[in-house]
Amino acid sequence: MTPSIPAPLDAHTMTNFADSAEPAGTPAAAPTRTGADADALWNRPAIDLAAGIRAREFTAVEVAEAFLGRIEAVNPVVNALVDIRPDEVLAQAHAADRAVAAGGPLGPLHGVPTATKINTSQRGYASSHGIPAWSGLVASEDAACVAALREAGAVLLGRSNSPAFAVRWFTRNDLHGRTLNPWDHGRTPGGSSGGAAAALAAGMVPIAQGNDIGGSIRYPAYCCGAVGIRPTVGLVSAWEPAGEVEFDSPMSFQTMAVHGPMAWTVADLRAAMHVMATPDLRDPVGIPTLLPKGAAAGPVTVAVVRDVGIAKPQPAVNAAIDTASRVLAEAGYRVEEVELPLLAEAARLWSLLLFEELRTMLPEIERFGDAGVRDSLASTFRAAAAIWGEQPDLATYIRGYARRGTLVTRLQEYLGGDRILLTPVSAEPPLEQDADLVGDARMREVVAAQWPLQAVPVLGFPALAVPTGVADGLPSGVQLIGGRFREDLLLDAAAAIEARTPRVRPAILPA
User: Fold this and answer.
1) pTM to 2 decimals?
2) N- or C-end of the chain: fewer Cβ atoms within 10 A?
């Protein structure tokens, strides 16, 4: 499985993600690195690593060895990365150093260690989805997003763990076991890209690839104190090679699922977003090119939405919203609190459109899934039934997709080219491990708390999770939502927040 290298980025694409600045004109400061490991290669941002390799301050092999050493030290505790092959990693790094010596053009991530997710095709590696029966499904080609990272010079270092079928906000499967949150082992690292986020927080990679249909990039970033962006649908190619059995992607997967980058710093996220933007007409919703985007005509407005009537934000969540609102105002943004009921409607539509299509996949999930994913999905379906009934009819489903189009138009009209939304990522701090398995009452609370994650995919808009600090020993953060193809506005605002809030790594707890 895997695609050919996608078409190179054009100048329009590069305009969107390169050289953006804060609206107030103040350059965003790099996150402060403190402690004995502050200058360790594994603790440096990806863009610094690429620059240092290019300038021959250190070699790609030295960088790879530093990250392999970090993985050896902390991955046995966290279990974030799987299928790590040091010899192959070092072979890629040696090739990167030969390219530097040859003096030819180098990609923007040249020599930078990067992780890919176990549900995404990487040639020579199993696309296992965490399912023991699929552990031998080795890809012969890269997915388009992985090919883009490879073309940019990234050293593919390991595979990040995920729940089976990538349908939980928790990361555990029968093939690779449980991933722990580096901040608190009793809390989820998020899901489904939980391994990626935990690896970022623990310093095992500076950049990781993830995917998101219901928060699977944004929620793990929130839980682990990283940054992650789900792009506008169609911006990053979702093309995967067909493999031995061709998979007909349901409509909700085509309209909601995206690949996107996760990183430890916003600058690295911007660089990875630039690389992964892969116009590709093999993707049924892919766009052929991007129009150039200039700066907003005036100050960007941040519309703050705390609560849409589904779940009250807990105190730590409200405090994160307060922090982000304050620092964005200091950075020159116009901040206002608003009500936006259409987000509640979108969140409810998510549980109709996605879950009615997931219903058709239940026989396969029952056959191959582990007990956790089966029990979690069953409880989630019962939570959805409280909104839509036990099994919505075809007319309800059709009306749901019709309503989706209206909501997309209304939200785009509201955002225009100079407004973004600031919302919680979740109404709760990072959930306790397996909160989805303790009973239907708790599951209803969990689903309600995740309304900000659910509202975005059903509409196909870009959204970004960025940390605001640490509260009670756990990361806190917010979600930014932008108009379609305005990832630049989200990255600028995230950089403004990052520059004005403290960043620290977790102290890795013993096993």
Assistant:
1) 0.93
2) C
